[in-house]
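User: Show me sequence and structure for the first protein, then do the same for the second.

Assistant: Starting with the first protein.
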Amino acid sequence: MTTTQTSRTSLAGQSRASFTRRPTAIAAQITVAFACAAAQAQTTTPATTDQTLPTVRVSAQADSDKYGAKRTTSAVKTDTAVLDTPQAITVITEALIKDQAMRSMADVTRYVPGIGMANGEGNRDSPVFRGSNSASGDFYIDGVRDDVEYYRDLYNVERVEALTGPNAMIFGRGGSGGVINRVIKQADGRSVRAFDLTLGSYKNRRLTADVGQAINEMAAFRVTAMAEDSGGYQRDMYVKRKGVNPTVSLRAGKNTNIVLGFEHYEDERPTDRGVPSRNGRPLDLPVNAFFGDPNTAGRLTTLRSDAVTALIDHDFGSGAHLTNRTRYTDYNKFYQNYNAGAVNAAGTLVPISAYNNHQWRKNFFNQTDLTFDVNAGGVKHRILTGLELGQQDTDYLRMTGKFTNGTSTSINVPLATPDLPLPTTYVLGGSSSDRDGKSKAKIAGVYVQDQIELSPQWQLIAGVRYDRFKLDYHNNATSGILAPTPSAPADLSSSDNLVSPRAGVIFKPFATVSLYANYSVATFPRGGDQLSSLTNVNKGLKPEKFTNYELGGKWEINPDLLATAAIYKLERNNVAVMNPATGIADQLVDGARTYGVELGIVGKVTRDWNINGGYAYQDAKLSATASATALNGATVQNVPKSTFALWNRYDFSSAFGAGLGVIRRGDSFTSTSNTVVLPAYTRVDAALFYAINPNYKVQLNVENLTDKKYYAYANGDNNITPGSPRAFKLVFSAKY
């Protein structure tokens, strides 16, 4: 039994886009040179996408060893070739995930141009897309929002799709600089028996399983599962997590498939926010230095989530297709942490503060997509219409830590010994950031899109999405500084009408080359990433707006190797800043502007040589003064001007292979104050692969081969995370 190809939220998307700085003559030359090189190759070696090679295996496993992906549905919600998609897309395939022994979103983005990471206060994934501020709400599972702050795992992932540029036309609110979509493994009738055992440095211990098969001609099942109990290179660090994700596929008729799934996932680890800075640089300390009480029981991050999914997929024939997807998720997220402040002038003392945060969230989303083909006057149309309904119910409780018998929210500790026992009491109302409240968000979105094939050389795509987003917030506090006041009433409400257009044009001078232009807009309501930022002041302000202009090209150098290039301009508008006349943040200004270049390459250079990587140039600056520490012209935090990453795998024989990766990140700033620099670094990764026989394999991955000391992420001037020293992972794989 097989599910229809389009029943997945996204097929495979080929790697990558590329981007250039500001659209000046220099940037234009890059695109012209790219097109000319492709044209010259086409005149000397005509290639067609229909070329058939004798070694191709026609089976579901045919692409299991490939880094590249030919098609995707995530970018336009229809089954479309990556070459025909006017947008930068990077697809991290299962083969690449396995070869690099990836475990996290930080691992995924390491080789993706245009996306970086902040340290997320030591408790969550926090990507930075194209110079846009770090976000925790731009994550999706099979195209459905997954926006709670936590660390995501890859045990049940078929591939990860990173789309840069505003994506609200497809994904709804947010998606301001990009989104990350995980495509989950589902029952599809194939017989699967796959097991991986990982052992490594810092007591790394992890076991994953993937088991599936057809029950009969009408039903199939698949179960993916994971258990991990590992240590870490930071002080008393450990990771305990487990997950199980069974799915069942049912054929309800000749052209109808139903897929039902459930996932239970747990994650527990200590919170570590890194080290502070001094004299414009991170403090040069051992990587396991900790600031605060080192007792792990007092600085935990925990997540427990349960998700139920249902997919109904029906093919009417003649190009008409209906998909309905439902996802309900119950999240319980808690973290408690210690936070270092600025070291005193004498360099002897550092202040420590603390707080905890508990979030309970229930998400319900239902998406219905109808696609159909129309031929009119020799012009082909693929039309998408869709409806998304959703509701998010969230409870929040944030409390501030107090020291010295509950009288102070900060305590100075010696810089020489910053990890002293600190008896801490957590109280509600210890700071203005505390809250005890709940919110209800209701979402109704409709969208329409037309993919137009004017001729074999020219294609157009145009679409628009309208979302009605309503947020109600209730303050549960009844006394103290959090109690309701006329300026901060107990109940707040806002309604936003969000319009997200997208338009693109594609020119294909050859079958294996496409040049495109793309325009898209995303909007961001005032409730914030986690729907908890609504105030009596901002509830009536216009949503933030992100506008993207992108030019690019894609070239299939050979049937399994894709090169991409793009230049873009991303503008952020309607940022709320302090109004000198009123003393409150009710003034809207332009926020930031990023000019960028991205270059990417992915796939097979030869039969035995796979590569994946790219280069990004980003010039991200504030375009207005937002505060005394965020001045007009300042560089956006966590955005190096230049990044480069390239991973190679070469198979010397059918049994033995090796991998080598190089990552280079330039200097960046830890905040918009631009007073502390996150130093540039170069990191080298390596791997060895050995197939004992077709069923058993072993691989050795070495992270940071040269044992380079570097700083990986930041979340402000005094929350700077050191990177891992040299670390080993030994993976034993069995497949039947």
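Switching to the second protein now.
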Amino acid sequence: MKRIINTVLIVATLSSASIMLNSCRDALDITQAGELQEEEVYTSVSNLNDVLNGSIYGQLDPIDEIYFTGVFTDELKPGFGSGGQEFELHRYFLDPATQVVGGGTVSTTTSDGIWLNNYRVINRVNRLLEGAKSITPTSTVEQGTYNSIIAQARAIRAFCYIQLESYFSTNMKDPNALGVIIVPGVPATDAKLPRAKNQDVYDLINSDLDYARAILTYSNTAASRYIVGRGFVNALSARFNLYRGNTALAKQYAQDVITNSGLSLTVATPSQPTGDPAIGSATWNTAFYATASSFNPYRNLWNDSARGEIIFSLNRLPLGAGQSIGTRWNTNQSSINGVPMWVWGRNLYNLFQNIPGDIRKYAYVDPSSEPNPNYQDPNEDPLDDALIIDKYPGKTSAATRNDIKVFRLSEMYFILAEAEVAAGNLTVAHDLIQQVRVARNYANLATTPLYTNAQFAYSDILKERRIELALEGHRYLDLKRLATLAGVTMDRNEIDDTVPVTNLPNNSYKYTLPIPVKETSANPNAQQNPGY
């Protein structure tokens, strides 16, 4: 049986029934007792669906990207519960073997976790596609299910390649720049594959997206946010084309999602329970922060009791598979008593607080926070500025697990606005950003300044992306691709560390991750990125 390149693990959990595909064999290729071969697993459309749901959806998880982005950029600063984990990463120390523990999870490396997990998923998709060739659907209904499985799998593969390109390609806008490794099917054990040009990777991505788009449809039911459909495909296409500089296609696909998904921006009202005389005021109560369900629609988007504007998210049950995102910031609960290891960066927190009527100052920040009014005093302990993260409050009061929001409608507005700036339509871009700000404002106080030139427009879009998409894995890539155009830089406050703070300069080579040492040492054809 063929296996993938050295860095990608092949043992795959296939379904809730614990079917196991074991391809980890010794040099003699001995078949162990009870071992299931691929020809025994891929025998029906039903089994194919088990593989998709258990092995592929179950492995898909961009939490390493979210955590790395938060720690490395200006989104976070150490909390008083920190034991010093990832301080080096917070101080921009990056090399192919940088250790990242990630809130008590299994140690990995910054680049290794992102590289390995995405290639694991790609490997499993490739195996599913290969196995599917031996299956013949027996009815029209089964044929439709079969087609949907293949389309979902290929869309997920495209997502993983885009994640890899985003972090490991030095310049996604250059089709001839070095991209990542294309894994063709299920390569032999000793395959040592080189990195491909961006354009070659893009051709594969577009092939997968076009295939999936022709089969999958939009659905705006509550449960459909957990299933790859056309909303996922077109949202991914919009993001991908924005990153690679094709703003016309980015605009086309973002507009398609806004027009045809059946979703609308989640509103900030009511700010208090119906009938409460404090509606629209800054008086907030425990009913807003209820774990299972709040009276506020935007809060319910984050506690997972409602879909809201979510295009696609990864389901995380209170107890179940998948990593807990809440424990990346807080040891056991999203309050000041939850031993916060990371808290909001001071300048980002100030943005939340200083926008009149903005719902995010409440939806993202726990009310148990204890901001230090003297945080600018150099004699104060920076760790005493306790700005507790509550964007992922847990699905129950006893758990810190929340769905991973992969695509939301607000991002499509941002993509559309950025594309309009690129086309010279500054007023249209302004109005799109204003629509998001209106949706997020419970006091009817949203304002967007006039966009007088492209640089100012980009800076305002980047500011709104920073606020709205905080701790969703965007900031690192946004700074990499947009900060210079916007005339801004990373924006840490001087108290965002226990040592003097610096900001990573624009165009630093560290805005591209190193190829993991596990890859380059085992595969001499995998060229390292500059600077490492």
